[in-house]
Design goal:
Shape: elongated
CATH topology of the domain at 52-142: Nucleotidyltransferase, domain 5
Distance between the termini: 99 Å
Largest sheet: 5 strands, mixed
Number of strands: 9
Order of helices and strands: EEHEEEEHEHEE
Number of helices: 3
Helix content: 25-40%
Radius of gyration: 30 Å
Structural class: alpha/beta
């Protein structure tokens, strides 16, 4: 140690930069934390008797672009596991559709639902401006052809 003008001189000075050697470790720990603690919402399947169809077309859309609307025999309407009165369906779907113009409304109804409930639902969807509507169904197993 050198003595200079009656005092001691420091050999090391404080670092002027933040150490970045552990930044990658912290980033990976945060990534793992968010992956483990994230809960993905999925619709509960309703106990319905699916309608049968001779031919179906699979929709190739992202899950966020599909809104499942469940209709039960009693006329109960469910969206995102919440029951809504039939008269409020259009009011609920309109802001969702305005936010996402690629939205496809998937009507998942029991095969024994009276037609007047489906008619009311489609009128509510028309009032909300939902342009892309599909009816979910199962493919009939009796339509398989015999191979020659």
């Amino acid at each position: 140690m050198g003595v200079r003008a009656g005092g001691l001189q420091r050999k090391s000075k404080a670092a002027s930069e933040i150490p970045s050697s552990s930044m990658a470790d912290i980033a990976f720990l945060l990534l793992i934390f968010f992956m483990v603690s994230t809960v993905f919402q999925s619709d509960k399947n309703r106990d319905i008797d699916w309608a049968q169809a001779e031919a179906i077309e699979k929709i190739d859309k992202k899950q966020k672009d599909i809104l499942n609307v469940w209709v039960e025999r009693s006329g109960s309407v469910y969206m995102n596991d919440v029951q809504y009165p039939m008269e409020e369906v259009g009011d609920v779907i309109f802001p969702i559709y305005v936010a996402n113009r690629e939205l496809v409304v998937s009507i998942r109804s029991d095969r024994n639902v009276p037609y007047n409930f489906i008619d009311q639902l489609t009128k509510e969807l028309q009032a909300a401006g939902a342009l892309k509507v599909m009816f979910a169904a199962n493919l009939e197993n009796t339509m398989t052809r015999q191979r020659r």
